[in-house]
């Protein structure tokens, strides 16, 4: 049985609470949040607190607080030499106060309080300073049903960067499509099956193999037509830059072999 | 019963063949392809030909040939005043020879011969010159199990442009993530659940509401770290431009309300 104390009750904290609460191999000691109101409805399920000095002993303390609060909260913890981890993709492990055994327990997923998620779809990237701590965190992640990946700091930062491309930047592509369809009285809804299929395709095919379209085919007539349709300069810039990127990626594929 | 003759046997032609073959309300008269070999394995299921002069009467002729071949093939058809449609997102309806009744039957989906697709996920955008032809094409699409949307030329071109953003450009975001993860000995596979979830989120939430991340939060420290990690100048340019686009989109949301 692994005992956990959770700090923070935002998107990540709330999902972790639910997963730990469900797990038979993990027990939740305490749940701390700066503002007690956001967790008070859980008080019959777990011991809650907003007083950091009351934290009791646990195998691991998971800090799911905002990136900028990690260093501060880790210093405030009223003990030392216990395992303390944060959940951020781009915060250095050494931001945690060095009085602790330290680790990172980074969930590679987009978590919102309001959206359900299956933890089998939440790969946990684990980084620790001591090897022994890795094994504990690995057991913890597996107990919650998560896939696990051991990473070093550089790899974690690269994964976070890659996540920005496939999540935030992809979502901005959807947003631009939303803007241009709505402004022309067509429906963004029509694009939803295509959005799902585009994501599904790369589940078992490389993005390189999955590419199609006018940029890849070098279809200048269509590209010119599209640029003329775009009203915002910034959208034209994005169209040009990503078209160029696609063409550079596929520069060595003969045009006649490119799928339409 | 609607009778159809299909021309072309690429990605779209092959999927339409299968859907028509399965449908009880649609009969396939003939299947034409320039190179007969690619359809010869179907000869027990449908009358096949590579001789355009042998085409018999049908309610509708669907041209699923490459964009550049549409005008030419439509002129070669050995009849007039029958309904002829093409399936392209960005080809003008008037590229079809004016001796025909003309229409467009544009599937808003990414179709590959090799990948199965459920036709309920293939919205058909229909454009016709005569209203009566619209009703026939609508019945045809519904008979194949497709959602239907009536569009005019401008709307169809805008939808095709939006499809480039959510399909080709999104896929290039995946590609860049693939490049940067592979070059740093991490695994693109770890990103796959996030890719699916990002697509799933906008099925019932606007991309505006779904946005998160360092660009939206104005987290300059992380943005700088990411730029330093990117090795290709072009990737830096893309990172900067899309970060700017996200910030412009959310400029009116106070920073404190932006989700992390
Ligand atoms: N959301 C995701 O998809 C995701 C994915 C991977 C990693 N992460 C990482 O997980 C961590 C939490 O993210 P989140 O999305 O859960 O954030 P969030 O929803 O904004 O929640 C932030 C939490 O931090 C607390 N907090 C903020 N500043 C604090 C301070 N100065 N002192 C004490 N507590 C403070 C908040 O307390 P109050 O309730 O009192 O405001 C809240 O409990 C971050 O490091 C983030 O980078 C997030
Ligand atoms: N694939 C998609 O996801 C998709 C989605 C929406 C719309 N579309 C549109 O649908 C149409 C077909 O696309 P596709 O992906 O099916 O293309 P494709 O797989 O490349 O197939 C092209 C077809 O056109 C034929 N063809 C090409 N040039 C010809 C010529 N000069 N004369 C006669 N036949 C010729 C080819 O015949 P051979 O077999 O003899 O080479 C083949 O049957 C295009 O207008 C495209 O814009 C495609």
Q: Tell me the CATH topology of the largest domain in chain A.
A: Rossmann fold
Give the C-alpha Rg of chain A: 23 Å
Specify the number of helices of chain A: 9
- Provide the number of structural domains of chain A: 2
CATH class of the largest domain in chain A: Alpha Beta
CATH architecture of the largest domain in chain A: 3-Layer(aba) Sandwich
Quaternary structure: homodimer
Instruction: Give the distance, in angstroms, between the N- and C-terminal Cα atoms of chain A.
Output: 55 Å
Largest sheet of chain A: 8 strands, mixed
Shape label of chain A: elongated
Query: What is the tally of beta strands of chain A?
Result: 8
Please explain how this structure is put together.
The structure is a homodimer of 260-residue chains. Chain A is α/β, with parallel strands linked by helices and 260 residues long. Chain A folds into 2 domains: 2-151, Rossmann fold (3-Layer(aba) Sandwich); 156-257, ProC-like, C-terminal domain (N-(1-d-carboxylethyl)-l-norvaline Dehydrogenase, domain 2, Orthogonal Bundle), CATH 1.10.1040.20. Chain A has 9 helices and 8 strands. Chain A has helices at residues 11-22, 70-76, 131-143, 153-183, 192-201, 207-210, 214-217, 220-229, 233-249; strands spanning 2-7, 26-32, 47-49, 60-63, 83-86, 101-107, 124-128, 148-150. In chain A, strands 3-2-1-4-5-6-7-8 form an 8-stranded mixed sheet, with helices on both faces. In chain A, α2 links the parallel β4 (60-63) and β5 (83-86). Chain A is elongated. The model of chain A has no long low-confidence stretch (mean pLDDT 95). Chains A and B meet through α4, α5, α6, α7 and α8 of A and α4, α5, α6, α7 and α8 of B. Bound molecules: NADP nicotinamide-adenine-dinucleotide phosphate (2 copies). Residues 8-13, 33-35, 38, 64-67, 69, 73, 87-89, 106-107, 110-111 of chain A line the site of one NADP nicotinamide-adenine-dinucleotide phosphate. Residues 8-13, 33-35, 38, 64-67, 69, 73, 87-89, 106-107, 110-111 of chain B line the site of one NADP nicotinamide-adenine-dinucleotide phosphate. Chains A, B: This is Rossmann-like and DUF2520 domain-containing protein. Chains A, B: It comes from Hyunsoonleella rubra. Chains A, B: InterPro entries: 6-PGluconate_DH-like_C_sf, DUF2520, NAD(P)-bd_dom_sf, P5C_Rdtase_cat_N, TM1727-like_C_sf. Chains A, B: Residues 122-246 form the DUF2520 domain.
């Amino acid at each position: 049985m692994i005992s956990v104390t959770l700090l923070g009750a935002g998107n990540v904290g709330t999902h972790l609470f639910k997963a730990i609460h469900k797990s038979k191999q993990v027990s939740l000691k305490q749940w701390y949040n700066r503002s007690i109101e956001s967790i008070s409805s859980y008080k019959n399920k777990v011991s809650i607190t907003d007083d950091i000095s009351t934290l009791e002993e646990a195998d691991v303390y998971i800090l799911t607080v905002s990136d900028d609060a990690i260093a501060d909260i880790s210093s405030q913890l009223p003990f030392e030499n216990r395992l303390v981890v944060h959940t951020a993709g781009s915060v250095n492990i050494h931001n945690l106060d060095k009085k602790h055994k330290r680790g990172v327990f980074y969930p590679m997923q987009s978590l919102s309080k309001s959206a359900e998620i299956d933890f089998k779809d939440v790969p946990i990237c684990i980084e620790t300073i001591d090897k022994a701590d890795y094994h504990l965190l690995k057991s913890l992640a597996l107990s919650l049903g998560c896939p696990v990946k051991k990473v070093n700091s550089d790899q974690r930062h690269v994964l976070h960067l890659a996540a920005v491309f496939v999540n935030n930047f992809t979502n901005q592509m959807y947003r631009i499509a939303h803007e241009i369809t709505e402004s022309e009285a067509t429906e963004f809804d029509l694009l939803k099956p295509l959005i799902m299929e585009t994501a599904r395709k790369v589940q078992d095919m490389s993005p390189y193999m999955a590419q199609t379209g006018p940029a890849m085919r070098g279809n200048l007539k269509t590209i010119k037509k599209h640029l003329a349709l775009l009203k915002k300069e910034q959208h034209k810039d994005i169209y040009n830059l990503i078209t160029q990127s696609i063409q550079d990626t596929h520069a060595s594929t003969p045009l006649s072999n490119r799928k339409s």
